[in-house]
Amino acid sequence: EHDGEELAEAFTCAAMPEGHTGVLITGPHLPEPVRRAAKSRAARRSDLRVHTWREDLVRWYAGAAAVVAMGGYNTVCEVLDSGTPALVVPRVRPRREQAIRAERLAATTHLDSMHPDLVRPARLSDWLATAVRRPRGAHGVDLDGLARLPRLVEALVASRTETEAARAHA
Fold it and tell me: How many CA atoms lie within 13 A of 71 on its CB side?
């Protein structure tokens, strides 16, 4: 089982909302037979495009009406930052890291999550039909951790200094 095969197939078989064009970006690791099948399906449709790669995925996410993506860390952060309605279909084997991330974010943000075993063209069609009408929204997740790091270190050092001072006076 390869990452994304079932999702790629379901997406390229899903109905796109009227007036929208679906874009599948396969990435370099999708097996060539699966990529060829996806491109073949897209060639028979006017509302679907398949690309192996795009340089500026952040710009693509920001310009999309909705995004369906796997649950890798960078992808999820980039999609969150775009404010675009998104459905995350995480990897669940061999590790649950992506699934845990997707479940937690779905509970606290505007991202939706779908277990990969439940992905079907009809379910993606239904999700897309409603998602493209959703407003873009702030997700409430602070993605600027590097800027926060100095304050966190200062707080940690101050706390340790206070603890050491209290021990010295005890």
Answer: 25
